[in-house]
Amino acid sequence: MSLCRLLVQPCFAMPLLVGVLTFSSSAAAADRDPAAAKSGYTLLNPTPRELWRELSADRPDLTESPITVDAGAVQLEMSFFDYARNGSAESWTAAPFNLKVGLTNSADIQFVFDPYVHVRDSGATESGIGDVQIRLKINLWGNDSGETALAVMPFVKIPTAADGIGNDEFEGGLIVPWGTTLTESVGLGLMAELDLVYDDADDDYDLEFVTTAVIGVDLTEDLGMYFEGVAITPTDGDFRALLGIGGTYSLSENVVLDAGVNIGLTGDADDINVFTGITVRF
After folding, report:
1. Do 153 and 182 have their domain in common?
2. CATH number (domain holding residue 121)
3. 119-140: per-residue pLDDT in tens?
């Protein structure tokens, strides 16, 4: 007589026990790592809304967020208006936006566009559409859990701007944003960026290094503010520095209003840049 005949219940129970232990182990791992439980979601198999992470936007500060949009979700980040003055030159942009689409649990694609730009300098005026920028953000860690988060974001600028608005040249670069939570109500963001920009004077491309640091503070459950420093160091040109300050107000978990101002401190940075806008996720 076989062992299974003698121990029929244990023999049938073993596969069941192994299955239960395997399932329990997988469930425990998912609890420890929320990203693992969401890793199967994609643009065509969207993340359920109840599993969406907390809203995180790349605006209003210049420091990009390392957090991506959940798979299948769409996020619109738009300024109502954006005004800048540099010496005698002035410009304003109507409804510039960044449209994000979640591709996977750790990647999204972004389309940045200025629908209408108006520039006035020394009495001459130009107006029309601006350039298009396509960006791919890939989160390396910290999207759903952890004390820190890091992402890489390559981008390319497509010269679609009207005459007198853009430089009619392709440009691009790589952005590396990092973030952490210092306390329950204070966060820190750091960013390093390497840009390949066209230099009209040399009829060639130059490198430009951008570094930023931002402190965000939750004043209440819905109201927040930030303070930011920006340094721009070109390989051929003057160093530029900016100081930014602004605030956000959450209307809901998927809608946030914002406003801010950037002030040029050194070099050929804009003397002032004022903007207000909104972020909507759906």
Report:
1. yes
2. 2.40.160.40
3. 999 889 999 999 999 999 999 9
Tell me the C-alpha to C-alpha distance, in Å, between residue 127 and each of 27, 96, 133, 163, 216: 57, 14, 19, 8, 35
- Same-domain status, 118 and 173: yes
Do residues 254 and 220 both lie within one domain? Answer: yes
**274 and 160 inside one domain:** yes
- Single pTM value for the model: 0.86
Q: Is residue 270 over pLDDT 70?
A: yes
Q: Write out pLDDT tens, residues 25-57.
A: 333 344 456 677 899 999 999 999 999 999 999
Are 124 and 14 found together in one domain?
A: no
Quick one: 7 and 136 in the same domain?
no
| Whether residue 263 sits in one domain with residue 128 | yes
7-16 pLDDT, tens digit each: 233 333 333 3
| Domain, as residue range, for 164 | 41-281
Residues 249 and 126 in one domain: yes
Report pLDDT digits (tens) over 81-103.
999 999 999 999 999 999 999 99
